[in-house]
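Feature request disguised as a bug: please show the residue count (140) next to Thaumatin-like protein in the output. Example input:
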Amino acid sequence: TFVLLSIIGLVYSTRVNFNNRCGYRVQVVRTENGRVPVQQAMLNAGQQSGADFGSNGMNFKNGFNGKTLAEFSFNAFSGLDFDDLSVIVGYDTPMAISSNRGVTVTCRGAGCRDAYLYPTDDTKTHSASTGGTFIVTFCP
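Example output, currently without the count:
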């Protein structure tokens, strides 16, 4: 039974890889609704890391006070993952989201066209089938 549940969990997981192309250290912080923010990774310039996630909505940013957000909802609706960049609360770190199955979005400034600029800017959300790999690049 444990093996079967483990296999089922893997089928519905999505991987997120983090790449630091900045000339400085990046503290990847994960935030989720109703949970305390946690450090996902500490990446020196040129380093990368990754993790698998199940059915959750979460954001990633640079530092606990970070403003630019890479936002995700995994296995959220009809077997889809949703992703976007957001600068609604402000901009502080250049960021991009790419995947092995969809659109690449990039934000290199406060008014970037690929990111949410206001709460109902819903044309900035992208979707793909659950179970792929996303790459969050800091300083693309």
